[in-house]
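Incident log, support desk, overnight shift.

02:14 A customer reports that sequence design results differ from what the structure should imply. Their input is reproduced verbatim below. On-call engineer (initials T.W.) acknowledged and began investigating.
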């Protein structure tokens, strides 16, 4: 079977890349990265996200969205990774997915329209500190009245989000997803420091905070949400990996040592060729995983695990090689290599590290 992006999806990718290259390049990224006291949420960039429809990609048309699929969303995620772009795009899109998958008609109408327009910044709080991205990792409990207790961490952009989707274990042992305002009584936002300053992280602690349960919540919905998060994170990672390889190849074509471009040395060019293959395979895995979820294919869960594991490994290797093969300048603060390396290092553990996903691959393969 021949599988490729459509012309419309390729055009979307080009539009996002061109906009970022023109309006939010690595100089703008550095300004956010070095402003450690800032909220990491550039207002003009967020406005553009809304105007360009990048927040509306998964929102149904009846809720003022574009009604597209995860395959289209991963196109955007890949471009954001390639530009090391800051902002709560992923967190907001996943919160919208939670409402789309589990919300009532009234909840979808109230949340998805403003979210698609960029009027609402949202986030997801799905696990306890250090726990797995699955039902076993949920660290918040809900009582019969929907009052939440416990801690979720790390959470992306909790300080700027106006709405959080919180996973909680309910009295019957099931899983519920609850809408909570981070500024509501009983909610405490604790900022976290991070080596990756292209994001802002924090923890949410709940002490009897009131939550509005999404009507169709279940453990299955949480699992689906985690899979979607894993695919979009994998796309971001392969975007970073591809940018790292491309920038490194271009640099090593012009950097001269011993009278020759260093890219002509076998030790370098063979390694970069191997990395290109690894990144290419990870790109294809992420594409197929998004397609498999869009089409509810029988191997979707396996495809997601393969994609995230491959993306983790490819991005770690490619961004590390970017530092190494830029020579001395690659190790400096002034060079952009550390943006990609630090972003990849953080995202490798987001929505499951390689060990978790490889365990899942083994389990699914043996079960079948």
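02:41 Re-run completed on a clean worker. Output:
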């Amino acid at each position: 079977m021949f599988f490729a992006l459509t012309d419309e999806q390729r055009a979307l990718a080009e539009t996002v890349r061109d906009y970022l290259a023109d309006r939010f390049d690595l100089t703008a990224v550095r300004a956010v990265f070095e402003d450690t006291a800032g909220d990491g949420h550039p207002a003009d960039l967020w406005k553009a996200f809304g105007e360009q429809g990048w927040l509306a990609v998964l929102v149904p048309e009846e809720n003022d969205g574009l009604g597209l699929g995860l395959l289209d969303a991963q196109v955007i995620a890949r471009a954001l990774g390639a530009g090391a772009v800051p902002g709560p795009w992923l967190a907001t899109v996943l919160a919208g997915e939670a409402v789309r998958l589990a919300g009532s008609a009234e909840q979808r109408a109230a949340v998805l329209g403003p979210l698609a327009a960029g009027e609402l910044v949202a986030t997801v709080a799905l696990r306890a500190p250090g726990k797995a991205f699955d039902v076993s990792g949920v660290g918040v409990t809900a009582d019969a009245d929907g009052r939440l207790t416990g801690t979720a961490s790390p959470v992306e952009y909790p300080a700027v989000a106006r709405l959080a989707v919180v996973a909680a274990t309910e009295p019957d042992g099931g899983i519920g997803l609850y809408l909570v305002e981070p500024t509501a009584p009983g909610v405490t936002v604790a900022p976290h420091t991070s080596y990756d300053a292209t994001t802002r992280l924090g923890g949410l602690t709940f002490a009897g905070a009131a939550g509005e349960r999404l009507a169709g919540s279940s453990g299955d919905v949480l699992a689906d949400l985690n899979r979607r998060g894993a695919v979009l994170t994998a796309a971001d990672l392969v975007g970073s990996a591809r940018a790292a390889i491309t920038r490194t190849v271009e640099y090593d074509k012009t950097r001269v040592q011993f009278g020759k471009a260093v890219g002509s040395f076998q030790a370098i060019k063979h390694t970069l060729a191997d990395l290109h293959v690894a990144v290419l395979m990870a790109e294809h895995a992420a594409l197929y995983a998004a397609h498999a979820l869009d089409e509810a294919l029988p191997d979707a869960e396996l495809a997601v695990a393969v994609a995230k594991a491959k993306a983790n490994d490819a991005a770690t290797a490619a961004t590390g090689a970017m530092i190494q093969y830029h020579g001395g300048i690659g190790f400096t603060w002034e060079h952009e290599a550390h943006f990609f390396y630090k972003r990849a290092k953080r995202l490798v553990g987001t929505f499951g590290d390689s060990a978790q996903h490889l365990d899942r691959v083994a389990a699914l393969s043996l079960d079948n």
